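Work through what follows:
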Amino acid sequence: MDNSGPIVNKVAQSALITIDLADYYDSGERVVYDIKDNLFQGLVLREKDFRSFIKDQDWSQYKGKNVAIHCSVDAIVPTWAYMLLAVKMEPFANMVVFGGVNELENALTQRALSKLDLGNLKGAKVVIKGCGDLPISPFAYVEISRLLRPHVSSIMFGEPCSTVPVYKKPKIKV
């Protein structure tokens, strides 16, 4: 066998489209606001005290941050309290969600992936990159798979040189 010819990168020549979820990762600071610090005796939220806190707080400290609002203790917290926090933080924050860090990450992922132009991927063979330096959650991989499936001919996971098949569009019998 003669190996003297040029080395051909078959992966680079293939029609595979690689999507790296790290390209959609929001690198902004994550902050968890725990409403437990606003509770009277750690049990209940008192409206007068809370409204005073809301009025006196400098909400600009949340500028550009991704904020998850939750309560880490078993307490009586009316829904409107979370709403007040969101309304005050929203003009400054990049994102505000109810829940913990996981809910925040999921919301950031959904917002980023909603900007994907799926029309460019009609019938494409797509590889979802599987390794990287950023903490990409399984939620992101499920979400990208869900979004791509109706549009692409196949979805693979990993690297173009070594993939795991995830989905292949069934051939239509005529």
The helical segments are 10-13, 47-56, 79-89, 101-113, 138-148. The chain has two domains: 10-25+123-168, 30-93.
